[in-house]
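Appendix C. Worked example: DUF192 domain-containing protein
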Amino acid sequence: MRRSSALSRAGTLRPMNLPRLVLTLNGHRIDAHVARSEEDRAQGLMECTSLAEHEGMLFIHDAPIEACFWMKNTPLDLSIAFIDDDGQILNVEEMSAGSLDGTRAAGLTRFVLEMNSRWFAERGISRGARMEGLPLPVQA
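Step 2, the predicted output written as structure tokens:
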């Protein structure tokens, strides 16, 4: 699902020529690297050793999917939120560094947000919370 990403001197994720998007969740600002292409989604946060407190990666799919993520070659623990077409969180899960176990969405998801481990739990964010700032699909 992911391949190597570039690192800065400090070992954190450096800008990967990916667009960035400012999101808001329960009043908390998130600075998200946007992975929209298949290649960028496959790369994800592999090899990333740290993220800033409110930094994450937003994976965007063209249509809702049955998402499943793993942590191959990812040396830090992460929290993951699976988000539907309307920006509502379906489920939040914790993922362990290097785990090859699949972490699945509770339903069809268009957006997936990875943040530092326990980021969502420490802010009381769970199923049903609504993300603001997502590029939501146009309703027909």
